[in-house]
Amino acid sequence: TTLGYTAEWAGLATAPVGLLAVVLSPLVGRNLNRMNLRVAVSFAFIVFAWTSFWFAGFSTGSTFWQLVEPRLVQGIAIAFFFIPL
C-alpha cells in the first residue's frame, strides 16, 4: 500500500469502524424509544460529513493514530444511522 501497511496493520486501522458499531448498536437499539429517530439519523449524517472532511485532510505522511481516530468517530455514527432504519 501507499503507507506501507501490511494486511494486518491495514485491518487494525479500519477495524474501529466495525467494532464501535457492534458495541454501540445494542445500546442504541435499547434506547430507540427514548430518542427522536430523525434526530439520531441526522446526527449520524452530520458526523459522516465531518469525518469525510477530516479524511480529506490526510496525506501519505499520516500516522496510524491519525487514521484510526476518525474511524472511531465514524463507528459511533454508524450505530446511530443503521439501527433506527
UniProtKB/TrEMBL annotation:
InterPro entries in UniProt: MFS_trans_sf
Residues annotated as transmembrane: 6-27, 39-58
Keyword Transmembrane: yes
Keywords, sorted A to Z: Membrane, Transmembrane, Transmembrane helix
Coiled-coil boundaries: none
Protein's name in the database: Drug resistance transporter, EmrB/QacA subfamily
Source organism per UniProt: mine drainage metagenome
